[in-house]
Each structure stands twice: as C-alpha cells, then as structure tokens.
Write a structure and sequence with these properties.
Length: 180
C-alpha cells in the first residue's frame, strides 16, 4: 500500500539552532541523517566540523559537492536501521521524519537498541511544533545492561519542534535546559 507523504525542507532556523547547540562538541562527530531529503542538515553539520555524515532517504540522493564527506544510502529508514545500519559507530543522529506520521515513536526504540550507537550519542529529532514526543527510552546494550535516552532539550523554532536526547546524562555533551 503506497501513501503520499509530504516532503518538507528543514527550516534554516532549525538548522542554525541545531548547529548552535552542537557547536561545542561537533568537531569530528560521525552523523547519521535520517530522512535526509536534500541533505541540507548533513551539509551544515559537516561544514560546522563533523567528520562525516551518512544520509539516508528513500529518494535518490541529490547531486553532491566534491569532497563534502556526505555518504548517501538510498533506503527505507526503518530497513536501514534494522538491517544494515551505518558502516561505523555514530555519535549524532538527526531525524526529520515526515510530519503527521508515527515514525518517531517507531524509530526511537530501534535507535536506542542499535549496536552502532556511541555510548554518549546525541539524538536530535525535528517534528511539528504540534507534536510532543518528550519520552525517555530504555536501551539494552548487551553486557552493559540497560541505558536510556535522556531528554536534554525541547524547544520550538518557527512551527517546528527540536527535541534532543542523549544516552549519557552524567557526561552530557548537550546541557539540559533548566526549568526556570
């Protein structure tokens, strides 16, 4: 069964906010960009200092600049996460699924269980500002036992919501927002 899903470019204000939040730790990060679209988030993160980005989208990859260090996988995101995954340990996942879908609820548990996720990984999720996925997830990581993805930040930017989780709250790369 085929469904028509809205294609939407990540807003510049969301990309800027993400880069500003990650600037202190972005150097040399390995990025996984899910629902990458045209690759604007991957490109921005690599430009800011990430070592490389693995961009995953069902559509054909766009024409890339030489030396951009963005590696494309044309694949269904859920298939990619559950079957192959990226070729190396990932430090940062950015996920921008189509709005008005249940992809975030379906993918966060799969990501939390991934063996290719760094112990201190950051997961950034863009959704509609009308969506609220403030959840913490148990994560099984073999002999290390259960861990969680901890909510670190949740803020609206021009009709979009940017929610950031991290797997190690004690050694957080992204400081949690204060409530006051």
């Amino acid at each position: 069964m085929s469904e028509c899903i809205e294609v939407r470019k990540t807003k510049a204000v969301v990309i800027k906010a993400l880069c500003d939040i990650l600037r202190p730790v972005i150097s040399d990060l390995v990025v996984l960009d899910l629902f990458a679209g045209l690759g604007s988030v991957s490109r921005a993160l690599v430009d800011e200092g990430a070592r490389c980005a693995y961009a995953v989208d069902l559509r054909s990859p766009p024409q890339q600049d030489e030396g951009a260090n963005i590696h494309w996988f044309q694949s269904d995101v859920i298939d990619f996460i559950t079957e192959s995954g990226p070729p190396e340990i990932v430090d940062l996942i950015f996920m921008d699924p189509p709005y008005r879908t249940d992809y975030v609820k379906r993918l966060l548990p799969l990501i939390a269980e991934a063996k290719w996720l760094n112990d201190r990984a950051i997961v950034a999720v863009e959704t509609s500002a009308l969506t609220n996925y403030k959840i913490e997830l148990d994560r099984s990581y073999g002999k290390e036992g259960n861990k969680k993805l901890y909510l670190m930040r949740d803020r609206e930017y021009g009709g979009s919501r940017l929610t950031i989780y991290q797997s190690d709250r004690e050694k957080a790369a992204v400081e949690p927002e204060s409530d006051g």
